[in-house]
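Async update (no meeting this week)

Hi team, since we skipped the sync, here's where things stand on the single-chain job. The sequence we agreed to prioritize is pasted below, unchanged from the tracker. I ran it this morning and attached the output directly underneath so nobody has to dig for it. Comments welcome in thread, and please keep replies under the output.
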Amino acid sequence: MKLSDLKEMAVRGGDLTAVADSWAEKLERSLKDDPTNKEVGKIDSFTVRQRFFLHSIWDGDELIAAFTLDNIPSVYCKIDDVWVKSDRRGQKMFVKILLFIKNELKCHRIVFGEVHSNETVNLLKSDGLKAFKKHWQNRAGEIKQFSPDTVDDFYGVGKWLLVLESGDDWSRFIKDGSFTHSYEALAQAIALHEQLT
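Output:
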């Protein structure tokens, strides 16, 4: 399967907070004691668990974030259904999730799902996620460069999906295939880099 085989397109989902919080509340109850929800890694002191495509992030017994990931080895990882608990927002959790996917799951090409919340659209318009090279790609394989000024042009028309790839600057954060710093320190370094550029 190639990236061009994807048939979705980017769509503005609006404010998805209430729906996502309700989903996460049910999810926490169903995952808490589920033996198939296995630990697959850590993001700093948080435990990352996986059940099929669903990844959940736990602070002890508290669910603090979740996302689905469809991993097609050597092609792409498609991240979707991202939820971060309201009191954990503003702590770079989404960036840490993307870094975990890149480093621990070895995904060098991350494709965003087709529905983007207001928070995602605003993040893209503010030119966030500078640690990744970003571009738009459609079903025909056509690629358009990413610019925060043209984000609105890619929603609902032309079957465009957002693709993140590892930037050239990864080598300064990686030593022998693993991060030399915690995800928190790495997220702070990236934030500082974004402020300076």
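Quick observations from my side:
Residues 37 and 51 are 5 Å apart (CA to CA).
The mean pLDDT is 83.
Reply here if anything looks off.
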